[in-house]
Predict the 3D structure of the following.
Amino acid sequence: MTPTRALAFADLEAGLWGVAWIPPVDGPVPVAVGAGQDAAVLTATLQGIDPAEKWRLAGDGLELVFSPSAPPVGAEGAPGVAGFDQLCQTGGRITIAGGEREVASVGWRSARNGTPELDRIESFREVSAWFDATDGLALVALRPRGARGQEADLVAASVFEPDGTHPVADPRLSTTYTAAGLPVRAGLELWIDQEPAEDSDAEDDPGQFPRRASAEALGAGVDWEVGGFAVHGAPLRWHSQGRDGAGAYLLGRRL
């Protein structure tokens, strides 16, 4: 079975960004891209599933390659939310507002091949953040059909750090929405399991610490429909541990 995949890239200094959510459907899919004040939804086909290979996204006005820059990280959290997240180097070109722009930035990709069937999901949120090619965060939250609030969400997260990866025991996402229901701010609190140091006192070492990050959306984002969902995508500026980074927010609601 083809997994549900997602991709994002952003170069905040150049004002370039792009994001896509790709369910297991046949044929080309929408890809949202932006350059400065301009944004558009293009159509492209994605080739690539394995974390060891380059993924290629190609279509009219768009040709991008997502090359792995760090090992894949298995999403940790709710049982049944399987798959991986991975930081990438993104290169290629997009054509928007009549002009071609070169893309060379850090990005992110994910594959979810063990999640519940999409017809059982009412909404999803995929949040990604990166501070360089080996340091970043990602979270997926799936809301089952019939659920009344976020308490029923299936949530899993991944943490990338230069010194290795860490399992997330308790991933949390908070979002501030506009009156129209679009995300404008996001916060992550990822409680990470940590083995106590050999010379530590177990009573003084709780074995967990949080990785926190906050972000604001840059612009209004873009809306499109695919696979039975209305999807909204927007680039984010992230802040964590004294560093600024980029990322994206994907929000999908069943049509």
User: Anything to note?
Assistant: The chain has one domain: 4-254. The mean pLDDT is 89. Residues 143 and 149 are 8 Å apart (CA to CA).
